[in-house]
């Protein structure tokens, strides 16, 4: 299979994953709590299919370089969420997303100018994480449940919209080399599409709670990208990818368990 065919498959896979993921997350937020929905939203489910095809087509060095770009961009996504949380309820959602995307783009440009190295990526995450913690420390993570339930066709349409947007972004990313491809692999398209549809079912407090939970859940991206970047050239990309997925799911489960214990302790 040639490079063009692989690129098309990668774009299609990520688009399909995004379609199912966004539809599922919105449905979950309507039926569970904003916190659980936010944690699930932060999982690298949309990113993983893109990396499957990058691994199939590129060598370990290219994949590791892309993962370093994606790892640093976790900081960009955190600042995207910081901006969105600050603006939700005060401005129309289109303006909120435009401001949040501006924060992501500005940070992405800085990351692109930095050397691709693990300490640099962790440094970016540390700085963005401190900003996210400071700005979100007073944001409640409990909020009223969603009002009403979306019909199945509406959930499917939301998913399709996300899939199309992901396909467009992914198609551009594959033309721009490993570092830029890694940065665009973490483009917050799932966050954008979920945020766009949430005001129909959740109040501003619920949206902020879900996005604050997503900030915390972004920790699940760290083992995924770190394993690919650090272990891929040594163990092979597929074992590293598998370890990254396991580590990501482990972080998400641990966060859910800790949250449940906290709520039980608070109820006593």
TrEMBL record:
The protein's UniProt keywords, in alphabetical order, are: Membrane, Transmembrane, Transmembrane helix
Species of provenance: Ferrovibrio terrae
| Name of the protein this chain belongs to | Uncharacterized protein
> What taxonomic ancestry is recorded?
Bacteria, Pseudomonadati, Pseudomonadota, Alphaproteobacteria, Rhodospirillales
Q: What superkingdom does the record give? A: Bacteria
Which residue windows are transmembrane per the record?
A: 6-28, 35-56, 62-87, 94-111, 117-134, 155-173, 179-198, 210-232, 238-258
């Amino acid at each position: 299979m040639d490079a063009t065919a692989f690129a098309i498959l990668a774009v299609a896979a990520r688009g399909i994953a995004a379609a199912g993921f966004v539809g599922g997350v919105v449905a979950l937020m309507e039926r569970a709590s904003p916190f659980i929905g936010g944690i699930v939203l932060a999982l690298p489910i949309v990113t993983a299919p893109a990396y499957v095809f990058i691994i199939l087509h590129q060598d370990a060095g290219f994949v590791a370089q892309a993962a370093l770009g994606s790892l640093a961009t976790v900081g960009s996504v955190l600042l995207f969420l910081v901006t969105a949380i600050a603006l939700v309820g005060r401005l129309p959602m289109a303006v909120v997303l435009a401001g949040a995307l501006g924060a992501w783009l500005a940070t992405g440009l800085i990351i692109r100018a930095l050397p691709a190295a693990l300490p640099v990526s962790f440094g970016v995450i540390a700085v963005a994480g401190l900003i996210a913690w400071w700005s979100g420390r007073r944001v409640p993570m409990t909020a009223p449940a969603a009002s009403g339930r979306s019909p199945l066709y509406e959930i499917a349409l939301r998913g399709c919209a996300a899939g199309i947007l992901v396909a467009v972004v992914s198609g551009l990313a594959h033309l721009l080399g490993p570092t830029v491809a890694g940065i665009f692999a973490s483009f917050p398209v799932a966050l954008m599409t979920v945020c766009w549809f949430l005001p129909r079912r959740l109040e501003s407090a619920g949206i902020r709670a879900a996005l604050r939970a997503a900030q915390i859940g972004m920790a699940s991206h760290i083992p995924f990208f770190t394993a690919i970047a650090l272990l891929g050239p040594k163990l092979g990309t597929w074992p590293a990818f598998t370890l990254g997925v396991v580590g990501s799911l482990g972080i998400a489960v641990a966060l859910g368990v800790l949250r449940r214990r906290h709520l039980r302790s608070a109820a006593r």
